[in-house]
Amino acid sequence: MTVETTALEQRLSLELFEGPLDLLLTLILREEVDLLELPVAELASAALGEDELKWEADTAGELIVLLAATAELKARVMLGEQIDEEPDPDAMEARERLAARLIAYAPFRRAGEWLGERAEVGRKHHYRRAPIEDAVAPVQPGDVAELAKVMTRLLIPPPQPALGHLTIRRVSLPEVLTRLRNALATAKRISFERVVGDSGPLEEGMTLIALLELARRGEAQLEQPEPFGDIAIVPAGT
Amino acid sequence: MSDSGEMNDDPVQLARELEAVLFLSPDPLTLEDLCDLAEEAPGSVQRALHQLEERYGAASGLELAEVAGGYTLRTRDEVALICDRLRNRPAEDRLSPAAMETLAVVAYLEPITRREISRLRGVQVDGVVSSLVERGMLEESGRADEGGAMRYSTTRAFQERFNLKASGDLPPLERFELTGPEADSIRHRLADTGHVASADDGDDGDDGDDGGA
What we know:
Chain A has 238 residues and is mainly α. Among the domains of chain A are: 74 residues, no CATH class; 63 residues, Arc Repressor Mutant, subunit A (Orthogonal Bundle), CATH 1.10.10.580. Chain A contains 9 helices and 5 strands, in the order αββααααααβααββ. In chain A, the strands form 2 sheets. Chain A has a 3-stranded antiparallel β-sheet with strand order 3-5-4. Chain A is elongated and about 130 Å long. Chain B folds into 2 domains: 76 residues, Winged helix-like DNA-binding domain superfamily/Winged helix DNA-binding domain (Arc Repressor Mutant, subunit A); 82 residues, Winged helix-like DNA-binding domain superfamily/Winged helix DNA-binding domain (Arc Repressor Mutant, subunit A, Orthogonal Bundle). Chain B contains 9 helices and 5 strands, in the order αααββααβααββαα. In chain B, the strands form 2 sheets. Chain B has a 3-stranded antiparallel β-sheet. Chain B has a two-stranded antiparallel sheet with strand order 1-2. In chain B, a hairpin with a 2-residue loop joins β1 and β2. Chain B starts with 10 loop residues before the first helix and ends in a 21-residue tail after the last helix. Classes of the chains: A mainly alpha (238), B alpha+beta (213).
């Protein structure tokens, strides 16, 4: 609701109060003016005009609403009700939460005060701050050439590491294929595990690739009844 | 350590030696440090420290103090003024109540993130934490996990400033808890003032504000 400012600021001269209307309303809300002693009729005639209406219809209507609210407030006070609005459960809950937080925080606040008392004592002492210098041998003026000599060594690339002692194992796929073909020529069924025997992972892998190659070319069929089990190699056409 | 390298059985010499290292050291020295340096048993070192304590009596400008986790020589409070002048320290170097409460929260709960402090105090604490870090009262002490928020702890300067013997040399927090009637009075006060402020998150306060009742 917006009542025209001039209507709110109008000066009233009542028995109980002299001053602008908005101040009176504020004082009423703050309970600084005793509503029981305030004649609402006198207030209404002073605010609206004794003999004729001082305001435009809109303004007057809004003023009347304000005055009616004041009258209602007074009625409640007369009936012994609190001026406060009905307690809102949300507000109550928020208030309780805030109280709980303030109570939980209070120890830290007091600890802060306790620290404050000690700060004054601690403040009056000074501590040594000079660091202990490390014992480093000072660089002699003549040592620049020495330094250059030492640093130059860092610029020489180190020799390549020798790899001669390492042997590279090579497994040739054609060789493995030939070996498998020879074996298939004489046997009806070969076990993969027997073919690879004790050979290393590289040979095992190459043998498997060779097997797949044979299967792809239709030279052999592979059977593996169970996952991770042995693979049986059977020559095609048997 | 005596010059001869032998165990020191001369208490006067031991006291002299301890005085010398305490004078030189920029950090407080623990009893263990002193025993190691002097190559002496804790009993003898403690006796020698006691002697030193007596020597640095009221007539001296220095005193032997147990502070910030060890022993140190520091200036006596009676000579604070002239020392302030030497170090150009402003006479007024007080910490605000907000800073004091923030320090209290960190001291009891360290290491702790800004957000946790803020949640507890009910106000934004970024400014006050930064200023306490700048003043050497707080320091960063790592993150809880990778990508987590930085956590803060109190420093040695904090312990010196508040004359604490070591980190955590604080009265039990329970000592500061409100009594039942005091807690009730907070509730009543809130009800009386018709306080209905939302208490869900107080991060929108300002540093100068204090988060207490």
